[in-house]
């Protein structure tokens, strides 16, 4: 399982190379923090590392499978990837239907709402920080409702 986690980290770091988050920090630090939040399960850790790869890079689900990422992880990453035509309700339902995706999404939202992370963003752009805080709180609430309060 260590091989799976190391592979997922390598793919994510390569996919996010040169990318920065809204606060100007290296983007790969975000999936690293999300991965630490689910550290007890290697499938969740691999999913956490990869959760934004399909959305934010040229990497595809086929590429992940070709690299040896298990179908279970790829399916969760796909569930976590918001498609342009997908409504919020459909996206939340898709995530809530996959226990692995749901666990990683809660970890993702917890990182996105981390007070230290929001403080850095608030200093740079208070309006965006507040908009995102509300967005993430809504997503957390909606996913809890759909998953029976997990």
Secondary structure layout:
Layout: H1 2-15, H2 29-37, H3 42-50, H4 53-56, H5 61-66, H6 71-80, H7 88-96, H8 99-112, H9 115-124, H10 126-146
Helix pairs in contact: 1-3, 2-3, 2-8, 3-6, 3-8, 6-8, 7-10, 8-10, 9-10
- What percent of residues are in strands? under 5%
Catalogue the unreliable spans: none
CATH class term: Mainly Alpha
Overall strand count: 0
Structural class comes to: mainly alpha
Sheet of most strands: none
Relevant CATH superfamily: Hypothetical protein af1432
Shape: globular
Q: Looking at CATH, which topology would you report?
A: Hypothetical protein af1432
The topology string of helices and strands comes to: HHHHHHHHHH
Compute the gyration radius: what is it? 15 Å
| Secondary-structure arrangement, i.e. CATH architecture | Orthogonal Bundle
Helical region count?
10
The residue-averaged pLDDT reads 95
Mind explaining what this structure looks like?
- With 150 residues, the chain is mainly alpha-helical.
- It has a single domain (2-146), classed as Hypothetical protein af1432.
- Helix content is 71%, strand content 0%.
- It contains ten helices and no strands.
- α3 packs across α6 (71-80).
- The model has no long low-confidence stretch (mean pLDDT 95).
Can you give keywords for this protein?
10 helices, mainly alpha, 150 residues, Hypothetical protein af1432
Short description:
It contains ten helices and no strands. The chain has helices at residues 2-15, 29-37, 42-50, 53-56, 61-66, 71-80, 88-96, 99-112, 115-124, 126-146.
């Amino acid at each position: 399982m260590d091989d799976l986690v190391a592979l997922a980290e390598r793919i994510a770091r390569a996919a996010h190379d040169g990318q920065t988050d809204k606060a100007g920090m290296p983007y790969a630090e975000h999936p690293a923090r999300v991965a630490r939040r689910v550290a007890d399960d290697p499938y969740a850790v691999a999913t956490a590392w990869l959760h934004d790869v399909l959305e934010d890079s040229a990497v595809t689900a086929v590429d992940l499978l070709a690299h040896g990422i298990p179908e279970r992880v790829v399916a969760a990453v796909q569930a976590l990837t918001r498609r342009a035509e997908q409504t919020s309700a459909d996206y939340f339902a898709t995530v809530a239907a996959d226990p692995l995706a749901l666990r990683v999404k809660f970890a993702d939202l917890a990182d996105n709402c981390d007070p230290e992370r929001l403080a850095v963003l608030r200093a740079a752009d208070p309006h965006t920080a507040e908009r995102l805080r509300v967005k993430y709180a809504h997503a957390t609430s909606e996913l809890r409702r759909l998953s029976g309060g997990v």
